[in-house]
Amino acid sequence: MLSGTIPNFAPVATFVINIHGRVQGVGFRPFIYRLAVRNELKGWVENRTDGVRIKINAEPDQAVRFVRAIREEKPPASHIVEIISKEDSAEDFSDFRILKSENSGEEITQVSPDIALCKDCLEDMKTQSHRLDYPFINCTNCGPRFTIIRDLPYDREKTSMKPFRMCERCRAEYTEILDRRFHAQPVACSLCGPEYKLHCKKEVISDFDQIIRTSAELIREGKILAIKGMGGYFLACDAQNEKAVDRLRLAKNRDGKPFAVMFRNMDSLKEFLHMQKPEEDILQSWRRPILLAKKKKSLASGVSVGFSTTGAMLPYMPLHYLLFEKLELPAIVLTSGNISEEPIIIDDKKALEVLGPFSDAVLTYNREIHNRTDDSVTTYVNGRERLLRRSRGYVPEPFIVSNKVEGILATGAELVNCFSLGRNRQAIMSQHIGDLKNLETLEFYRESIGRFKKLFQFNAELIAHDLHPDYLSTRWAKEQNIKLLGIQHHHAHIASCMAEHGLDEKVIGVAMDGVGYGDDGKIWGGEFLLCDYAGYERKLHFEYIPMPGGDAATKNPWRMLLGYLYHYQKEDLQLDQFEVLQSIAPDQSQLVLDMLRKDINSPLTSSAGRLFDAVSALLGLCTTASFHAEAPMKLESAAAKNINDSYSFTIAEDISFKETFTAIIADLNRGMDKGIISAKFHNTLINTIFAAAKKISLESGINKVALSGGTFQNRYLLEGVETKLSENGYKVFSQEKIPANDGGLALGQLMIAAEKRRLACV
Ligand code: ZN
Ligand code: ZN
Ligand code: FE
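^ thats the input. predicted complex w/ zinc ion below
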């Protein structure tokens, strides 16, 4: 302010407004600029490490209105955690500016997740002459982000848009601060942007109108199409065509795993699936995940065999909308373009080689996918969204934590891998990586760690890894020549849940899980811990049961059933008593029984997942699993509604289900409906968890209970446990934004490592 000048109108005050949340890389500063100009406010806006800061000259009521407008009109992909507005020392501004940020930490939060096509662009696609039906239309509020970024700062040159020179019209939009495409890095039009090509068996089609017609025709005729999507290739076919779906299943080598389905719109979706309002909101959000929803009307039976839910999503790329315009069908299968457990294909040449032979056409485009991301998978249980696979639309959004996690790299688990980097108080979780035992996935893991390090300017000082010595993530950690810290699997699961809820105190941790290495060398998974980040006490656990053949028992639930039966009945066990074992070759079951008798290759486990396996096999729902967690998922799907009965169990030194098994066998012999038995079993588990938590609470005086581990993906179980505990006065915490399965493990590893490092420093 110039001293000595006499204002010729009533002096206005100066306000400083700090906004925290997801406000970077989502068009927030141009939005503020436009809003300020519209309201004739002067001042500036800048990005800061912790969000966005604004200063304005305004009357107090003007400032209030401005803040209200920020809240009401904010860009769709932004999320405001808080806005703090207060009067500041007087300054006099002559215009409104976007300040160039000199903050070195700015880059950390600038990588936005990919954003689904916005409403305005959908409209522009029908009205802007240079973008009529143009399938790569985008703006500051929508379009690819993480999938195309190579390096920082986030600038077109550093993305896979680099080869595309903007035409004059695009450049004008890109440089005009009042335009919705101001600094939208992937801005493009039909003149200057990327293009699709359709590789049919005999010809390659380049004309987009013809491409979209032919693609629709092929799908309508029951053919399979490989389509390059946002984070990788996908395979598509008519979701109501039995033959096409079966053919796709065969080609993908995917025995029983359900396919995800894209519906043309919400109306079509509601015809086939039951929807609650919050589920609709999740499906329509800019993240556009796959949501597991309850079936109402059948699609082709091969879409999800033996399950009560279907994974559904809505269009999120311009191409999806354009395709459905030409396609009268209500839904298409849209499953990741890979074979078995390999990572989703992103390379065009590989797509033609691998997907080409069994697809009737390959729809590709000439912009590179730099960071592979699968579709994210989420569900809505007990009034809250629960993420099951965190990838497109969510990654790499950092997760704010209460401890300083700077410099820590958490390597995750093995089967459903996801790693995490600590920057300051942010946990940056990688996209879903997958099963590291697959060689290509391991390569994707190594490559992604390298990319995240570069993107987030990260230097690892400490690596936190799982205690399992044979996990490939552990082995990778040991090759790094950096200080290591091994972290118990279930401790990490609970810490992940605690971190999500900002808990930093002792809690009762209930980890219901598949398998995790225990500190006694046994395989844990039905665990009751008393823990904080610094450490844990194992208070109770499911009793140890032999797992005949180790990993082979996980793939063959009937083996686990034999493990349980032998454990309880020993030499009284008569295999021919069990109808379900008739389907197993007698020499096979005899061999497994011998293994158990002689205690050969039968590691002990307290796993909850394996308990579900055994019961699922006992009911004949799944004796051999064609994919991970098939048996527990089938058991859950079978559970009847409104059953209150349950079985007995015993809690002593450990928790035994001997009485449960005896009663289930009696119910089976009585011919009881399997749905009722499944429900009774689920109720038993709910009662067990409640009783165990109560016991620990009485001893310790602690009444906060954190639930985590892959078994809590079971809706029946999660809902039942949460309800029962909270009705009895416990404070219950469960995973929402971070998966309860091993995909959320790295967050817990990060938190525990940070705390152990802090304590060592003290
Ligand atoms: Zn847009
Ligand atoms: Zn252009
Ligand atoms: Fe686990």
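The mean pLDDT is 94.
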